[in-house]
């Protein structure tokens, strides 16, 4: 944009926030839903290396390193289904291909 606002010129490009807003709208999320944003693709140092360590190869305990291909996770905790799976009642399970022990014996 060089001071010229032609009608076909895009004033606002698709920013990350705009793209997220489009996806949230497409998913039907509400304004008052509990949204959690996390980072994936990282590693945390779990080794206590002491006071004197090789800084090129080792990191102090708890140091977070982000991979080059790290990613953002946006989850809607309000719509998360936390109900546990329930087994079928006795006699209710009728698979399309029932298990037959006679067919599985090798000849």
The unreliable regions are none
Please identify the structural class as seen in this structure: alpha+beta
What is the terminal-to-terminal distance?
76 Å
Count of DSSP-assigned helices: 1
- Let me know the number of strands: 2
Major sheet size, sense and barrel closure: 2 strands, antiparallel
Q: Write down the secondary-structure element order.
A: HEE
Question: Average pLDDT value?
Answer: 81
| Overall body shape | flat
In the sheet with the most strands, the strands line up as: 1-2
State which percent range the strand residues make up.
15-25%
Kindly provide the radius of gyration, computed on alpha-carbon positions and rounded to a whole number of angstroms.
Answer: 27 Å
**Share of residues in helices:** 10-25%
Describe the structure.
By secondary structure, the chain is an alpha+beta fold. It has a domain of 48 residues. The protein has a two-stranded antiparallel ribbon with strand order 1-2. The chain is built from 1 helix and 2 strands.
Q: Any descriptors?
A:
about 110 residues; alpha+beta; two-stranded antiparallel ribbon; 1 helix
Annotate the secondary structure layout:
Layout: H1 16-27, E1 35-44, E2 64-76
Antiparallel strand pairs: 1-2
Summarize this, please?
The chain is an alpha+beta fold. The protein has one helix at residues 16-27, and strands at 35-44, 64-76.
